[in-house]
Each structure stands twice: as C-alpha cells, then as structure tokens.
Amino acid sequence: MSEADQLKALRLRIDNLDERLLELISERARCAQEVARVKTAALPEGEQPVFYRPEREAWVLKHIMELNKGPLDNEEVARLFREIMSSCLALEQPLRVAYLGPEGTFSQAAALKHFGQSVLSKPMAAIDEVFREVVAGAVNFGVVPVENSTEGAVNHTLDSFLEHDIVICGEVELRIHHHLLVGETTRTDRITRIYSHAQSLAQCRKWLDAHYPNVERVAVSSNADAARRVKSEWNSAAIAGDMAAQLYGLTRIAEKIEDRPDNSTRFLIIGNQEVPPTGDDKTSLIVSMRNKPGALHELLLPFHANGIDLTRIETRPSRSGKWTYVFFIDCMGHHQDPLVKDVLEKINGEAVALKVLGSYPKAVL
C-alpha cells in the first residue's frame, strides 16, 4: 500500500472515531440534562438544587487517570475530560466564579484550570472582594491565591479568612511561568521601568538583577494590570504570564524568567457548601492558642500522636489583641475521618478558638 493510501485509510479511521466521540459526548450531555431534571424535581418548590459537587468532579478525574493507558499522559487526559465536564455542567447551570482580576491574571488561569472554560468568570479588584462576592451569594465560588513555592503565604488571603465565614471547597496548583513582555511601541533598548505584581518581582529578583539592574521596578495590583499599562507606553516592560500576553497583544522578549523553575502557586476554591470525604482529602483550620509556654507543642502533639501529616502551618497576628497570634494549619485527611476528628477534639480542649475552614479533595490537576 502506498503512502498516500495509508494516509487516506488513517484519516478515514480518524473521521469515524471523531463521529463516535461526538455521539458519546452528546449522550453524556443529555445525561447531564437528565441529572438536572431529576435533581430539580426532587426538591420542594423554590429550593435550588446543588449541581456542582467537588467530590464527584475529583472522583471522575482521578478515575479517568487510573484508567488511562496512553499515549496521552494523565494530566492531558484529565484536562480533556475537565472541559467535557465543564460544558455538560453548564447545561445544568453555568457556574459563576469570582477571581482576583483583572482579566489575564494567574488567578483567572487557576479558575479555568479547575472549573473549565464554560464557567462565567468575574474579575474582582482585590482578594477581599472575592470573599465578599461569595459570602453575598453573588457567585457560586471564588478562587484566591494562598501560597507560592518561592515567596510563601499570601497574607491578604489568610487575613480574609479571619474576617469572613466561608468554606474551602477545593484547591488547584498552577505552575507559574513569568515572561518579560513589551508592546508594539516599546523601544526595547530604552526600557526604564518594569511593571509587575510585588510577588512576581520577588520571584524574578535574581534574573532582574542580572539583566536589568538599573531599571525601576514598579509593583502594581496584578500582572494583568502591568501588561495593560505597557500596552500604551514606549519605555516600559511587564512581567506577566501567557494569558496576559495574549489578552493585551504583547511580545515576549524573554521567557520563563522566574528564578526557580519549579515556581508554583496554590489557589483555594472558596464557597458555601460542605464537601463530603473522597478518601484523598485535605483539611484547613484556624487555631488560636493560649499564650503560655509549650502552647505550640500542645497544638502539634495530637497530629503526631495520630499520624496525621501536616502540609502547612502559618502564623498571623490575631485581631483580638496585641502580640497574640493565630495558626493556619493544613493537614491530610477529612474532618469526618476518625483520626482527624479525634485530633480536632483534642485541640479544641486546649485552644482558645478552633475553626475548621473546610475539608476538600486534594488537587487533581
């Protein structure tokens, strides 16, 4: 068989597979519509059903990854199914998701990675505004950054948890790649200032010291805002990611300039619904201890005794008094798990205050 005949046969086979895929995706979408009908019919009149279930979404993606035999890798297959699930969910009820804006930020990229492209995303000017939108019920969920692998905790997010009653429903991790961007009118040999978010400037500090040591570094509210400013200036550049570059039509003059190649940011999904156990969960909590010798030891001892893995512990000034602090803790397990439940009961006996922020599936993507 000639090369042309082989290609023709393969293309015909691909066409047949595409037709079968389309029919299966359409059948899945019809099932999603039927799920919405059943959920709505089972509720009293006027009550709204819960269409999005974080534990169900996490299970489906993990199950698909377990079944995957290649040649596409697990993450690529999960992304494909994420978009199918996102489109099907939009047939039931489009999700409204708030994120730290403007458009083109890494927070928006995290929101789309977690929920898919079919959500109705709403940019907010500040992290606290994302919390307020969720608390008010104006959106179903919010996406906020909580820690970066290079620069540590995002304190504005931690402080917002102290001020608002809200539930953590999920997490998403995003690899952060920074690029040096310029606009059409930028004179690259005359750059006198570089805009970016303060954390991004810190994450690229060594690269900037080596390549632009004498250029002014200007911290702005977000990387997307930095990209927007550069669009109309001839003597400036911006540090931002792919989404901002595409949105504002900027050109990369240097790629992946972050000091650490494994630079990642963890984002939390905040909402108002409790998430049942999945078997692979995390729990986040806030603890305020009495100011006495050995307080931290008393706090950590129950985790050690029950073999519970602590993944993060941060301290922030308490709002209740000068030189008093609260602990933000992430641990493996769900607050309904017997061992975790036992730990929480023991801590509650010693703590001034204990608040479980939520138990949620460990990040799949």
Overall pLDDT confidence? 92
Q: Classify the fold: give the CATH topology of the largest domain.
A: D-Maltodextrin-Binding Protein, domain 2
**CATH class term of the largest domain:** Alpha Beta
Secondary structure category: alpha/beta
Q: What is the CATH superfamily of the largest domain?
A: Periplasmic binding protein-like II
Helix content: 40-55%
Describe this structure in words.
This protein has helices spanning about 5-40, 55-65, 75-90, 105-115, 125-135, 155-165, 200-205, 205-210, 225-230, 240-250, 295-305, 340-350; strands at about 95-100, 120-125, 140-150, 150-155, 165-175, 180, 195, 215-220, 235-240, 250-255, 265-270, 280-290, 310-315, 325-330, 350-360. The mean pLDDT is about 90. It is globular. It folds into 3 domains: about 50-175, Periplasmic binding protein-like II (D-Maltodextrin-Binding Protein, domain 2, 3-Layer(aba) Sandwich); about 180-260, D-Maltodextrin-Binding Protein, domain 2 (3-Layer(aba) Sandwich), CATH 3.40.190; about 275-360, ACT domain (Alpha-Beta Plaits, 2-Layer Sandwich), CATH 3.30.70. By secondary structure, the protein is of the alpha/beta class. The chain contains 12 helices and 15 strands. Strand 13 (about 310-315) and strand 14 (about 325-330) form a beta hairpin.
